[in-house]
Design a protein that fits this description.
heterodimer, A: 208 residues, B: 285 residues, Farnesyl Diphosphate Synthase, 2 strands
């Protein structure tokens, strides 16, 4: 491997701040997002990988074992598609999905290795499919996410949302077998309470 | 478009039910007058839903008048919304002709011969319907995409439904912009997906006999296995209906008006009823 300082274009005496600045500048320049539909995408990916490796190496050299850059920057040098400094890969994918760029999000998700495909991965994949209208695939992904992480509220909510109609629709509740509390139920309850009270010598409703 | 989704009238207000009939009447009348008398016989419930969706989205002013119907004695209430009707009838003419050409390509024997014989009549309807820029291309593209998906023998129901659904998305949102376009796109997509999968479920046994492509057969290998997975198929159809009504709710006024009540009724109750009807028919067979 080349001298990591040369890769980042800084001198060996440069301060941490300067190295960070150079890394950020190059990472922005070669970020895979800038090359999504570009024939030179592979080249850009390689460059990005080299920059990451160089930066990792310098950090390790300087800070020793106690410093784990990935925790701070969330950048995984093994997979350049994963993330960008400043947040984890999934946060970035979430942002892409929220801004409607589902195709890009799908590419990033598919680029992840099978080892990284945890419950959140399946949840995000489900969101991508949902946005595309591919509901059967969305359903199987969200079911998988829920079975992998059964206590996650966000996944459960999404699963439920897929199964329910519009809130403002007068017919939504008719499709689910929810037990509601109607006026009739309230009267029945009051009468029962009255009977119980009368058995015990009291009276809940005087007139009957 | 196969006429699966009709309202559950028992759950509608009488005034809404009457309005639905008036829209059906108006659409039939417009088609008969401006496109061809044949449209009166071929128009179905799915197109009435499309007309209601377009009327609701475009905010077209609608009046209900009593008009004489040549096929029924006496006068009938008829909703006038020519802008939306014209568009829906055009889409209908082009879709029917596209479907006929598709059938001629795929089928064999006597039914192919019959369809070839009636082709000029539908070609005339399509020509009369071709009044909106780009609508013919949308229909052709959509039917081609469906053909391509079928020739690829895809085993994913979603992917094979995508072509037809995307066509419905473009038809529903034609000429709209901004927020309304987004809502119409989503509603169109999900109703297209629903119709495609419901039709696949309806035809599963016939397709198994004839050897035609059916995404459900491809996914579940044979009709027996598909029917044992009916829950899964039902669920995905209901998911489409839920997605439709969730997205449509973004447009619904507060409190909801006659269009909203009708559309929610047709999609949430009528769609589920359609699925149940298809399943019952499967069980009878």
């Amino acid at each position: 491997m080349n001298n990591p300082y040369e890769v980042l274009g800084v001198s060996e005496n440069a301060s941490d701040e300067e190295i960070k600045k150079a890394y950020r500048k190059l990472a922005k320049q070669y970020h895979p997002d800038n090359y999504t539909d570009n024939p030179l995408k592979d080249l850009a990916d390689e460059k990005m990988k080299a920059i990451n490796e160089a930066y990792d190496l310098i950090q390790k050299e300087r800070a020793g074992n106690g410093y784990n850059r990935q925790q701070n920057y969330g950048y995984n040098s093994n997979n350049t598609n994963n993330s960008y400094y400043g947040d984890s890969g999934f946060a970035r994918i979430r942002r892409l999905i929220n801004s409607g760029r589902v195709d890009e999000a799908e590419v990033l998700l598919n680029g992840m290795g099978s080892g990284e495909r945890n419950a959140e991965w399946h949840f995000l994949m489900s969101l991508v499919y949902y946005r595309k209208g591919w509901l059967q695939d969305a359903r199987s992904e969200i079911n998988l996410a829920c079975s992998m992480d059964p206590y996650n509220r966000e996944y459960r909510n999404f699963q439920q949302r897929m199964s329910s109609g519009a809130y403002s629709s007068p017919y939504s509740n008719m499709n689910t077998n929810e037990i509601g509390c109607s006026t009739c139920d309230i009267c029945q309850g009051l009468l029962c309470a009255d009977c119980c009270c009368e058995c015990l010598g009291g009276d809940c409703i005087r007139c009957c | 478009m196969f006429g699966y989704i009709r309202p559950v009238k028992g759950e509608l207000y009488v005034k809404d039910s009457e309005f639905y009939s008036a829209v059906y009447c108006g659409l039939c009348r417009y088609g008969g007058k401006n496109i061809s008398h044949l449209t009166r016989w071929l128009l179905n419930y799915d197109f009435v839903l499309l007309a209601l969706l377009r009327m609701s989205l475009s905010g077209e002013k609608v009046c209900v008048e009593k008009k004489r119907c040549p096929y029924k004695l006496g006068k009938k209430a008829c909703a006038c919304a020519d802008g939306s009707y014209a568009f829906v009838c055009s889409a209908f003419g082009l879709l029917t002709y596209g479907k006929l050409l598709d059938d001629i390509k795929d089928e064999k024997g006597f039914s192919r011969f019959c369809k070839k014989m009636i082709k000029p009549i539908f070609a005339r309807i399509a020509k009369k319907s071709d009044t909106y820029d780009g609508l013919r291309d949308i229909v052709n593209e959509g039917l081609n995409a469906t053909d391509i998906a079928e020739s690829q023998n895809l085993d994913s129901v979603d992917r094979s439904a995508d072509g037809f659904a995307a066509m419905m998305k473009k038809i529903a949102s034609y000429g709209l912009d901004g927020e309304k376009k987004l809502i119409a796109e989503s509603c169109g997509y999900h109703i297209g997906r629903f119709i495609y999968i419901a039709d696949a479920l309806d035809d599963i046994k016939d397709d198994e006999k004839s050897g035609n492509y059916n995404p459900l057969l491809k996914k579940y290998e044979n009709s027996e296995n598909a029917i044992s997975h009916l829950n899964e198929i039902e669920e995905t159809l209901y998911d489409s209906l839920n997605a439709f009504s969730n997205h449509y709710a973004l447009l619904a006024s507060n409190p909801i008006n006659a269009y909203d009540r009708l559309i929610f009724n047709i999609v949430e109750l009528g769609g589920r009823n359609a699925v149940k009807r298809i399943i019952e028919r499967k069980n009878e067979k």
